[in-house]
Structures are given as C-alpha cells and as structure tokens.
Amino acid sequence: MSGTSLDGVDAVLLDAAAAPRVLASVHHAFDEPLRRELLALNSAGDNEIDRGARLGNELAKRYAAAVGDLLRGCGRKASDVRAIGCHGQTVRHRPDRGYTLQIGNAALLAELSGIAVVADFRARDIAAGGQGAPLAPAFHATLFRHRSENRVVANLGGIANVTRLPIEGTVVGFDCGPGNCLLDLWAAKHLGKPYDEGGEWAAGGRVIAALLERLREEPFLDAPPPKSTGRDLFNEAWLTARLRGEAPRDVQATLLEFAARCVAEACKGAARVIVCGGGTGNGALMRRLADLLRPAPVESSAAHGLDPSLVEAAAFAWLAERTLSGAPGNLAEVTGARGPRVLGAIYPK
Ligand SMILES: Nc1ncnc2c1ncn2[C@@H]1O[C@H](COP(=O)(O)OP(=O)(O)OP(=O)(O)O)[C@@H](O)[C@H]1O
Ligand SMILES: [Mg+2]
Hints:
The chain is α/β, with parallel strands linked by helices. The protein has helices at 32-41, 48-74, 106-113, 123-127, 137-144, 181-191, 200-203, 209-216, 219-222, 236-240, 248-266, 283-293, 311-324, 332-335, and strands spanning 8-15, 21-29, 84-86, 89-94, 99-103, 117-119, 151-156, 159-165, 172-178, 272-276, 298-300, 345-347.
C-alpha cells in the first residue's frame, strides 16, 4: 500500500482467514526525489505518459523491495504467499469523469517478486457506476463491527475516510475531507519536513475563525455520500485560493481544526470511534477529535488488535484474497456501484 500522503510503502503479511491477522509488516519511506516526482504527477504537466510509466516501474521496484524485506524479516519464502494485493499509487481520482488511475507496474512486480499480483482494484467499481472508493469499509466491517455497539472507523490518511458500522442495517462509508494532506503540504513549505511531528507546531498556533469558515465552505463537504476525493481537489492551489496572508503557524492550527471537524462530523452519533492511519501519530489531531466527539471514546485501532498504520495495507491484502476467491470486494451501498463486483486484475506468478 502506498497512499495519498506519499510517505512510502507499507507491506504486511496477512493471514486472510475468517479472522484476518497481520503476521509481519515493514514500512519503506519514499526518498524526497521520488516523493517530489509523484506529487508533480498528481497535477497536469508535460509528458505525463512517459513519466507515469517510468514512475510505475520505479514503484514496482520499491514494492518488490518492501515485499522482499518483509519475507526475509519473518523467514518466509515467496512460495508461501498466495498473492500480493497492490493498490498502486493514485495519481488521478476522477470518478466524475469515469476513471481513476493508480500507477505501479503490476507485471514487473510479479516478475521481480515471483508472486502473483492483484492490482487495479478501483476501476471495476467505477465501471459499475461507483466512486471506486473507499474500498476499506468491507474490511473495516469484518474486523471492527460489533453486534451491540454503533461504531465508526475513521482512517486518517492523506484524505480521511470513515466507515459507519451500525448494529443493524447497511454500512456507510465515504471520504469526509482532508486528513493529513493539507497539514503535510503546509509543514513541508514552512518547516521543511514531511509532516508536523505530533502536531506540535499546529498546537502552538491559533485557529483563525474566518479562514476556518472559508475552508468549510467547500461544497464537497456537504455533498451526500457516496463520495470520494483526492489531491485532485485538496491540493496546494485549493489552499492558496483561501489564504489571505495569515501567519503560517496559525494556518497550520486552522488546518488541523479543519481536518478534525471534517472527521468528527462524519463520526457523529457513534458510540465508539476507532481511528487508524498515519494521522493517529498526530497527537494534537487525536486530542482535538476526542474533544469534539466526547463522550464517545476515540481509540486507536491498536486497542482492537491492529496497528493503525497497517490497517489500509491489510485491507488490500484482504481484498486480493477476495478477488482470488471470486468474491466481491466493494460494498455497493458505500461506493454507489450498481452492485457487488469482483475487483482487480490478476497477474499470475
Ligand atoms: N508522528 C506523526 N506526527 C504527525 N503526523 C504523522 C505522524 N506519523 C504519521 N503522520 C501522518 O501520517 C501520514 C501517513 O499516513 P498514512 O500512511 O496513513 O496515509 P496515506 O499513505 O495517505 O494512506 P491512505 O491510503 O489512507 O490515504 C504522514 O504523511 C503524516 O501526515
Ligand atoms: Mg502511507
């Protein structure tokens, strides 16, 4: 898994039995040049086909290296693994135009790893009229649904998405706004770091009410689900258009408040909120979420048996298993697709 934050690759070894279990994991961070090239490819530019194909090859090498490391670390062989579920790196997400694009050369990954690869999970759902996202809700339901407690799972990735798991009735899931992506880009610009460690810089700033108001006017936030988004919307141009020369640290504080409110509003009514994704490392964001959602407990998924930084990667391993078993991976009521679909393309080993 490599997500919108462009922080790197998370690889997990998943036992995809009825009660899925992560057996081992590794994280490989992207170096700055790769991160920059991937970020650049998220907006229109010159020679995108060649740049995308070459970056896809580079990603396949990074994914293969992560898989190699993962297996060495736990003493397993390629032949012990049924398949790699490879999400790829999103460079465009435009369900409104009938497409989404995740790069990462799956054929090369199968060649380098000697393991079958399942990739391109989102396209089929979009072909069936859906958003192609989010796809983690089925996995969240498998892991975290409770028979006597209304729960919501909130994934704080580059974009934040929630999965509402009612005691009875249908699961609802949608992208609720920016998670870390705006915080990260502002931190990169003003601190020269990929993220604001623990949200400390934001915590020392002041929330600017007028700016918060302008951020919250974004129509995507009020649109009813199904809905999904990406860097196509929440990017530097979007943020810049809403700034009026405010002090950088106060902007960071406001962006944190903005992210927290987007997530908290989507979690309303939950008896318990289970949080995953890298944003769980942002203590200031977690504290603000807990304040906004009180009295509902806001807990890391670690309290429910799975490290928060591994949930998304585990979800795509689980989805690969669904594909190989001929089982649907999407929840049509979440994505808005015409029905359940077997997702992905299989690249045999
Ligand atoms: N210690 C920390 N302090 C603050 N932020 C952190 C910390 N650790 C991780 N993060 C944030 O988490 C991000 C990585 O999160 P994650 O990998 O879940 O996102 P992602 O790759 O975008 O995944 P997704 O597919 O869910 O969008 C980092 O870019 C950073 O913003
Ligand atoms: Mg990530």
